[in-house]
Specification:
By secondary structure, the chain is α/β, with parallel strands linked by helices. It has eleven helices and 16 strands.
Length: about 350
């Protein structure tokens, strides 16, 4: 491993610290190096906060460490535009950085090569593509959205000991996953900008579909998306009445309702055959800037996403408990149809968790 790769790997480790708090921005890390030694570190910590390069420069400045003539290793091409913060290119130039090593070029049209070009135009030596695949992997949802204008889709399914899920809609819901597994679900929600379920899940379980027990920082709760073709969700369901998060309901015809709260939106999104195609849902969410979508159920909704081929990752939790009244089997092997491969298996409070990725 070259020295550039060693320092970029450290930048990757720093970038992971931002976690879900940076959404919709990607996780980015940066280290400043002089004479083969790290003199400052930074990462994008939360949305609206300093970018990684800015934090690294501030880190050096706070300790009285000069940055003139140093090298910046950054996992993503520095921005060259004004957004929530000033351009990182200006910060690097102000700090006297003479060499910038970049992991991934930013595919966002507002940046795309502008940062590197601006630095080079001001006499800074720029190296690109160092640990590019690792950097791209850390920023998968952001990269996916920039390139496809559709959200990165994660499917979450909870199965009983026999591989069944979902009881009949007239039976009371039963929680059969462990507390540890439920914590993982909230972590998945925190990593998502939207959470989608079908109408039967809302009617049967009356879920909140919010992140609980996890610090979201300055971020808002994920958007709740309900696929409700025939406008069955109305009244006092939590997704309509709790005002904990915004809710978007998708119908096949205009609903005759005028008593929803300001946090509830209803749209019509159907094709000529009166169906709601998964592709149109994803296009619509992508246009709204949704980069990460968690599909929580139920079984019909999972199968529609799998059949469409639009699943990028899956989190399957199999309990040791047999669910009484379960009528809907879920075959994990169908995930192969989406091009997914099982990458990890582990225990979670007695439940068996499997992760699938493309």
């Amino acid at each position: 491993m070259s020295q550039d790769e060693q320092f970029m790997r450290l930048a990757l480790e720093l970038g992971s610290r931002g976690g879900h708090k940076v959404l919709p921005n990607p996780r980015v890390g940066c280290v400043l190096v002089r004479d083969g030694k790290v003199i400052a570190e930074g990462w994008h910590d939360h949305i609206g906060g300093l970018h990684a390069e800015q934090m690294a420069i501030a880190d050096a400045e706070s300790r009285g460490v000069p940055t003139q003539g140093s090298t910046a290793f950054v996992t993503l091409e520095p921005c060259n535009h004004f957004g929530r913060t000033p351009p990182c290119t200006e910060a690097l130039l102000w700090a006297g950085i003479e060499r910038v090593v970049i992991g991934s070029m930013d595919p966002n049209p507002t940046v795309r090569g502008n940062g590197a070009d601006s630095l080079e135009g001001n006499g800074v030596k720029v190296i690109t593509g160092v640990l590019e695949s690792e950097c791209n992997h850390q920023m998968r949802p952001f990269m996916h959205w920039c390139q496809n204008r559709r959200p990165f889709v994660t499917l979450k399914a909870a199965l009983d000991s026999n591989g069944f899920t979902d009881r009949e809609i007239d039976l009371d819901p039963i929680r059969f996953s462990s507390e540890e597994s439920l914590r993982l679900v909230h972590e998945l929600r925190a990593e998502s900008m939207a959470i989608l379920v079908g109408v039967n899940t809302v009617i049967r379980d009356n879920p909140s579909l919010t992140v609980r027990g996890i610090d979201m920082g300055p971020r808002e709760q994920p958007l709740r998306v309900i696929v409700d073709p025939n406008c069955k969700v109305k009244g006092d369901y939590k997704v309509l009445s709790d005002e904990e998060a915004e809710t978007l309901l998708i119908h096949i015809s205009e609903p005759d309702l005028d008593d929803d709260s300001e946090l509830v939106e209803r749209i019509v999104l159907s094709d000529s055959e009166g169906e709601i195609p998964i592709s149109r849902i994803l296009d619509m969410l992508g246009d709204r800037g949704i980069q990460t979508l968690l599909v929580e159920g139920g079984s019909d909704t999972w199968n529609r996403f799998i059949e469409s081929g639009f699943v990028d990752m899956a989190h399957i939790c199999r309990s040791q408990i047999e669910l009484e009244g379960a009528r809907f089997p879920f075959d994990e092997n169908t995930l192969h149809e989406c091009g997914l491969t099982k990458t990890r298996t582990f225990d979670s409070g007695g439940d068996l968790i499997t992760h699938w990725e493309k």
